[in-house]
Specification:
The chain is mainly alpha-helical. Among the domains are: about 30 residues; about 140 residues, Serine Threonine Protein Phosphatase 5, Tetratricopeptide repeat (Alpha Horseshoe); about 140 residues, no CATH class; about 110 residues, no CATH class. Helix content is about 70%, strand content about 0%. The chain contains 32 helices and two strands. It has a two-stranded antiparallel ribbon. A hairpin with a 2-residue loop joins strand 1 and strand 2. Helix 18 runs antiparallel to helix 19. It is globular.
Length: about 650
């Protein structure tokens, strides 16, 4: 009886084994394919030149995890000891053995972008290490962990904090490099429209004229040839005569030629004698500017941009389009556009992985906060003036197109915090800067002359559900009419009592007036910002009258008369951005402002330098800066001011 029962058990076990082995054989192929698709595989062979730890880890087979844990502990120890280069080498080994280990990618990138970069001496060296951290996450870490929230957050943070922030001494160089790099990748953005309804039209313009042509470009060069047969001849000429390959180098050379051509058109418009000609010394100019290849060249350029964007930057043109329509006219030459892209992408990808079991594993609040801070930064500095052919030109002003985006995304993030995390925590995190943002928005819109939108935002501030209704001073402040509220904002606290803060407010308004107003051709913005700067100047001079022109007890001093101060700011801006944007800005100024600015420019080193260059055939100083009829009167006024200032030790606006 027992023997028959044992035999039955054995037969059942044998049958189950056959079933399980068959199922295993069937599923193994599918599991292996899934592992390949989702990159859930480990390295199974060491390559020449790799550290010995890689071969050792591979040889340990099932005990690889234990070995990696040891390496991870050792890498942390090296970091704590300040031995960053050794920690980087060990981190490379760990990512080679376990590419699906997100924290080690973040550790590795942080060492490159932060710890090692600050040990170098020059901005160029620092940027090389910061860029290495960016590329590590963007090109390797995230592709190996496509929907990992941590890696997206870390990459976004490097862009927002290290590049766009001001903590690093070399931050200006970083910003220039990002602007240059993305001018090469995508080209200069289209000129933004003017008028009342500019936000949606600006978004659509950036999509239709900047991103969509790249997104819809042919995938392969053969598809380009099929659509434009002349493209084959064009490529052959580029390779033969200009030694150009279809890569970033080609895009860089093309963009330089395009920038110089745009400059020539701008400077020569309406002039009997051309001031500027396109002379690069690069044979690519003659080929690119040949009208014969106009259509073929456009399609080829779009194809190269698409391949570089996808293959080298691992970015998705369709997602870039969607984010532009959702958030605003993203200028991809601005670092905050990239912090927004990667943080928002991380949120979208991570949401797809959420379930009841793993819900608590995802920290959406911190990543959403980076999206919100990116939007805030784009409002503060999203309108970028940059020219690849003019290295001195990198200037930013606030961008009103991102005002509504801030509140819209904050509500979206709060909803997500309630579903996937702690809504109360999200509300606390996101509400902290809301009041200051609204105050900034009101002042910004008011100084642009857009009083209707300023009223709308003032109403939002007054009716905000999170306001402290028990703060009688705040309630009184918010009961003031808009004009009085703005004046109160100017005179409240240290804005009006601190010369440095007051100077920053006045200079900021004038800079926006000259860049966005004069250079950008937006007359209402010019007039609104100048009026705001004048009002702030008058308020400062009147409320600080006991200190005006004389050093006070703490050494504070007044500012120059407003018209002279405005000319100083414009002259400084013209000299800082150089040719051709400087002369374009100068020539767009009203005659009286232009006359005072001419006097200051003619007293600078720019005049003798330009006149000396004119002997070699370049335009002379007065060709770049034609003096207006009222120059003689302005000269007497400015000389009298300078003489008076030298006698009483008056300071200038810094």
């Amino acid at each position: 009886m027992n023997m028959r029962r044992d035999t039955l058990i054995q037969l059942v076990a044998l049958a189950l084994m056959v079933v399980f082995l068959s199922a295993s054989a069937i599923l193994t192929g599918e599991v292996s394919a899934s592992m390949g698709r989702n990159r859930l595989v480990y390295s199974d062979s060491a390559e020449d030149g790799e550290p010995k730890e890689v071969a050792l880890g591979i040889a340990m087979g099932a005990f690889r995890g234990v070995f990696v844990n040891y390496l991870w502990i050792r890498a942390n120890e090296l970091k704590e000891e300040g031995r960053y280069y050794e920690a980087v080498d060990l981190a490379k080994t760990i990512t080679r053995l376990q590419p699906r280990f997100p924290k080690v990618w973040a550790f590795h990138a942080w060492n490159l972008a932060y710890n090692i970069s600050v040990t170098t001496q020059t901005p160029e060296e620092r940027w090389a290490w910061v860029e290495s951290g960016i590329r590590l996450l963007r090109n390797q870490g995230i592709p190996a962990n496509n929907n990992d929230l941590i890696l997206h957050k870390e990459l976004a943070w490097i862009y927002l904090h290290k590049v766009q922030g001001f903590m690093d001494d070399a931050h200006r160089y970083y910003k220039h490099q990002v602007a240059r790099e993305w001018t090469i990748v995508l080209g200069a953005p289209p000129v933004r429209p003017l008028g009342a309804d500019t936000v949606q039209s600006a978004r659509q313009l950036y999509v239709d004229k900047w991103l969509r042509p790249v997104a819809d470009a042919p995938d392969t060069i053969e598809q380009v040839y099929a659509a434009q047969p002349l493209a084959r001849e064009l490529v052959q000429r580029l390779e033969r005569e200009a030694e150009a390959s279809l890569d970033m180098g080609f895009l860089e050379r093309f963009e330089m030629v395009s920038s110089l051509a745009r400059t020539a058109i701008q400077m020569n418009r309406g002039s009997d004698k051309p001031l500027v000609s396109v002379q690069t010394g690069d044979p690519i100019a003659e080929i690119v500017l040949d009208p014969k290849y106009l259509d073929a060249g456009k399609l080829l350029l779009r194809h190269v941009r698409r391949r570089v964007l996808i293959d080298e930057y691992h970015m998705e043109p369709e997602r870039m389009i969607r984010f532009t329509l959702k958030f605003g006219p993203l200028d991809w030459r601005h670092a905050a556009a990239h912090s927004l892209y990667w943080s928002a992408r991380g949120v979208e990808e991570a949401v797809l992985r959420i379930g009841e079991v793993n819900r608590s594993d995802f920290d959406f609040v911190n990543t959403d906060r980076i999206v919100i801070h990116s939007v805030q930064e784009l409002f503060r500095s999203g309108l970028l003036f940059y020219d690849i052919a003019n290295p001195l030109l990198y200037l930013t002003t606030p961008d009103a197109a991102f005002l509504d985006t801030y509140s819209d995304y904050r509500e979206e993030a709060l909803t997500r915090a309630g579903v996937f995390g702690d809504r109360k925590r999200g509300q606390s995190e996101f509400a902290n800067g809301q009041e200051n943002f609204l105050r900034d928005a009101i002042r910004f819109l008011y100084r642009r002359g857009d009083k209707q939108r300023a009223e709308d935002y003032y109403r939002k501030l007054r009716t905000a559900p999170w306001l402290n209704i028990h703060n009688s001073e705040l309630i009184h402040e918010l009961s003031l009419p808009l004009d009085e509220f703005v004046v109160h904002e100017i005179t409240d606290g240290d804005r009006i009592t601190s010369p440095s803060v007051a100077a920053q407010e006045i200079k900021g308004a004038l800079t926006a007036a000259f860049l966005e107003g004069l250079l950008g051709g937006n007359t209402p913005v010019f007039e609104g910002n100048v009026a705001y700067a004048r009002m702030f100047h008058q308020e400062y001079q009147s409320t600080q009258s006991f200190r005006v022109w004389l050093a006070g007890q703490d050494g504070r001093m007044g500012f120059p008369p407003f018209d002279i101060l405005a000319a100083q700011v414009l002259a400084s801006l013209v000299l800082s951005v150089n040719v051709p944007q400087g002369p374009l800005m100068y020539q767009a100024a009203p005659p009286e402002l232009r006359a005072r600015t001419y006097v200051l420019l003619s007293m600078s080193q720019a005049k003798p330098a330009m006149d000396q260059m004119a002997q070699q055939g370049s335009p002379e100083f007065d060709s770049w800066f034609p003096p207006p009829p009222s120059t003689d009167g302005a000269r007497q006024e400015m000389l009298a001011y300078i003489q008076q200032g030298s006698s009483n030790g008056r300071t200038e606006l810094k």
